[in-house]
Amino acid sequence: DGGITQSPKYLFRKEGQNVTLSCEQNLNHDAMYWYRQDPGQGLRLIYYSQIVNDFQKGDIAEGYSVSREKKESFPLTVTSAQKNPTAFYLCASSIRRGLSYEQYFGPGTRLTVT
Amino acid sequence: DAKTTQPPSMDCAEGRAANLPCNHSTISGNEYVYWYRQIHSQGPQYIIHGLKNNETNEMASLIITEDRKSSTLILPHATLRDTAVYYCIVRGGSGNTPLVFGKGTRLSVIA
Fold first, then answer.
1. How many angstroms separate the CA atoms of B7 and B24, rounded?
2. Do B93 and A35 touch (CB under 8 A)?
3. SS3 category, B82
4. Which residues contact A104 (CB under 8 A, 6 or more apart)?
C-alpha cells in the first residue's frame, strides 16, 4: 500500500445520496488516479490528476467528480447521477523513476448503494 | 483498451516456478512492460517492470523477448500466498499516464 490511505474500507449509502471517498498519500507523488473495479473485472479509470488543481476524465467519468486542491489528497465524489455506483474503488499515485513511472495503489473502498 | 494478451487462468504447484506469459505484439520503442498482481479484495501490488533487458527483484523475474513482442513473469518458488490475478501492462515511458488494465491471468497455486 506504500503510504496511500483510503477511508473507509467499507461504505454504505442509500440511493440518491452523494458520497465522497477519501484518498491521501504521503509519498510526495505528483500524479493520482481513481479506478473502479466490478466483480470479476479489471480496473477501469475514472479520473486522474497529474498536478495540483488539474485533472482529466478517464474512461468512465460520468456520474463522478474529483478535486485536487492539495498534492497529497484526491477525493472522489460519487454523485446520484452514477447509475451503478456499487463497486470497489481504488486510488493510486505514481512517481517517476529514471525514464519510467511506478504506480502504487491504496487498499480500496468497497461502496454499496441500496 | 489494454495492449496485452494474457491467458485467463493458470495453475501452479506450490514450490514450483510459475511462468506467466504475456503478448504485447504492438509495443512501441519507448513503452515499458509492467506487472502487477491483485490478491482478492486488495489493491493491486507492483511487482516489476522492464524495457528490453531482463529484470529481477526480490519478488520475481521478468524475461522480455528480443523483439519485445512478448514477456514472461517468473515467480521462482510459488507459494499459496502467490494466488492472485496477475496483470501485464504496457505503458509509455514519456509521460505519467495512467495504467490501463486488462483482465489479467488468475494464478492458482495448489498445495
1. 13
2. no
3. helix
4. A1, A2, A3, A4, A27, A29, A92, A93, A94, B46
Helix (H, G, I), strand (E, B) or coil at A21: strand
Burial class for A62, CB neighbours closer than 10 Å (0-12, 13-18, 19+): exposed
Beta bridge partners of A45: A35
Instruction: Spell out the SS3 assignment of A66-103.
Output: ECCCECCECCEEECCCCCCCCEEEEEEEEEEECCEEEE
Question: Residues of A at the B interface (Cβ-Cβ below 8 Å)?
Answer: 1, 4, 30-31, 33, 35, 41-45, 48, 50, 58, 88, 90, 92, 94, 96, 99-108, 110
Looking at the complex, does the CB of residue B61 fall below 8 Å from at least one CB of chain A?
A: no
Cα angle B21, A40, B74; round to 5: 20
Phi-psi category of residue B81: left, alpha or beta, with phi > 0 → left and psi -120 to 50 → alpha: alpha
* Contact of B19 with B10, CB cutoff 8 Å: no
Q: Give me the percent of chain A exceeding a pLDDT of 70.
A: 98
Distance from CA of A101 to the nearest CA of B (A): 6
| Facing residue for B101 by CB, picked from A42, A48, A101 | A42
Query: Is the Cβ–Cβ distance between B4 and B100 less than 8 Å?
Result: no
Which tens digits make up the pLDDT trace of A42-90? 899 999 999 999 999 999 999 999 999 999 999 999 998 888 999 999 9
